[in-house]
Amino acid sequence: MNAVPDLLDFDELLTDDERATRDRVREFVDARIRPNIADWYDRAIFPVELVPELAELGLLGMHLSGYGCAGRSAVEYGLAAMELEAGDSGLRTFVSVQGSLAMSAIHKHGSEAQKQEWLPRMARGEVIGCFGLTEPNSGSDPSSMTTFARREGDGWVLNGAKRWIGLASIAQVAIIWAQTEDGVRGFIVPTETEGFVATPIAPKLSMRASIQCDIALTDVRLPADALLPEARGLRAPFSCLNEARYGIGWGVIGAARDSYGTALEYSRTRMQFNQPIGAFQLTQQKLVDMAVEIEKAQLLALRLGRLKDAGTVQPHQISVAKLSNTRAAIAIAREARTILGGNGVSGDYSPLRHAANLESVRTYEGTDEIHTLILGAHITGFSAFRGTTIEGAS
Ligand SMILES: Cc1cc2nc3c(=O)[nH]c(=O)nc-3n(C[C@H](O)[C@H](O)[C@H](O)COP(=O)(O)OP(=O)(O)OC[C@H]3O[C@@H](n4cnc5c(N)ncnc54)[C@H](O)[C@@H]3O)c2cc1C
């Protein structure tokens, strides 16, 4: 594990349980992800064999209660996300898509029978889920989605297309959001259903140790009980996105910390002009700026986590962490890369991989611009989204 800046005794703010969860996930990342990630990334492989181990650690639907889920606190979930993303954003993304998006959609909006049917198997990693909201022509503005579910007898027929859907080609179940005559609704779609085709997007320059797909939906016939009964309108998918955005606010700190640690270690041993490069003031300025930003990001994430555990967190507060911590993490990963010089573009060192991954992280779950607009609307009272409402955007 790389050095962790601890200028402010952050650990003192955590409970014993929180530290124990963090340490458990950190050990897993050190043993199972760190030694292999450069190769997986290079060959664009998602290590699906790790799914049972992630389940064993209780990380799938970790913050959900009942139905075989671990029921851990928001802070513990955040710390786990941070440790996973120190390994690679792609692995944290897997846990986010499975737990915060697919499982939380069923947990929040599903019937009792749907929860019983899917959640225990998803928590055990036996069933992988995905979450299809984005479409080829509908991203930041999901109200423009054109995937449509029409009623046929008691059931439904889905037609449309989704894009950038994490895990879709290896998932057994997809949560698909679609327009209906009744507004946007969510559907539980077993991926073996005829007419459901997921194709991995390639080549990718980011998130290479992770899978994102195009999905074609052609006359996908579903029974009546495929509908998520409690999901009405865009508020339903947004409530899941908020869960995932929360995890990102923590996760990106892991990528930043690993980049910083790699650069710090390198700066202690790399000699130029007869000195370790860490002895140069210009290098120290970079390292100090990184360490200070990481401390600030941790404090922000922890504040958000405490609000979430208290049940009072507001969507705009999640935007503060998603926007600020992702922005800080990208800057840190890029700056760390400069300290590595030419070696910084080799796959043997993590910062450029993290920086490339973070380009995806800054884009999904609301781009920088979208979170800025959410906060702008909150601060000024004026919505600057054209054709949508403040509530719809958050
Ligand atoms: C690796 C990866 C994984 C993903 N996983 C999933 C997933 O599992 N499920 C899923 O449903 N989606 C997923 N996505 C999709 C992601 O959520 C979208 O890419 C994101 O919402 C942005 O949509 P877009 O790509 O269509 O860009 P657009 O919405 O077309 O945006 C393009 C640019 O325009 C800007 N823009 C848009 N509207 C405004 C505005 N009003 N004011 C100012 N600027 C604006 C954006 O900020 C951006 O800079 C994933 C994407 C990636 C890259």
UniProtKB/TrEMBL annotation:
Q: Which domain of life is it from?
A: Bacteria
Where does the Acyl-CoA dehydrogenase/oxidase N-terminal domain start and stop, copy by copy? 15-126
Q: What is its EC number?
A: 1.3.8.6
Q: Which residues form the Acyl-CoA dehydrogenase/oxidase C-terminal domain?
A: 232-379
Q: What is the lineage of its organism?
A: Bacteria, Bacillati, Actinomycetota, Actinomycetes, Micrococcales
Indicate the segments forming the Acyl-CoA oxidase/dehydrogenase middle domain, all copies: 130-220
Which Pfam family name is an example for this entry?
Acyl-CoA_dh_M
Fetch the InterPro entries from UniProt.
Answer: Acyl-CoA_DH_CS, Acyl-CoA_Oxase/DH_mid-dom, Acyl-CoA_Oxase/DH_mid-dom_sf, AcylCo_DH-like_C, AcylCo_DH/oxidase_C, AcylCoA_DH/ox_N, AcylCoA_DH/ox_N_sf, AcylCoA_DH/oxidase_NM_dom_sf
Is the keyword Flavoprotein assigned to this protein? yes
- Top-rank EC class of the record's enzyme: oxidoreductase
The biological processes this protein is annotated with in GO are: fatty acid beta-oxidation using acyl-CoA dehydrogenase; fatty-acyl-CoA biosynthetic process
Recorded catalytic reaction(s): these are: glutaryl-CoA + oxidized [electron-transfer flavoprotein] + 2 H(+) = (2E)-butenoyl-CoA + reduced [electron-transfer flavoprotein] + CO2
Q: What is this protein called?
A: glutaryl-CoA dehydrogenase (ETF)
One annotated GO molecular function is: fatty-acyl-CoA binding
Say which species the protein is native to: Microbacterium oxydans
Keywords, in A-Z order: FAD, Flavoprotein, Oxidoreductase, Transit peptide
PROSITE patterns tied to this protein: ACYL_COA_DH_1 (PS00072)
Cofactor(s) annotated in UniProt: FAD
- State the pathway, as annotated in the record: Amino-acid metabolism; lysine degradation; Amino-acid metabolism; tryptophan metabolism
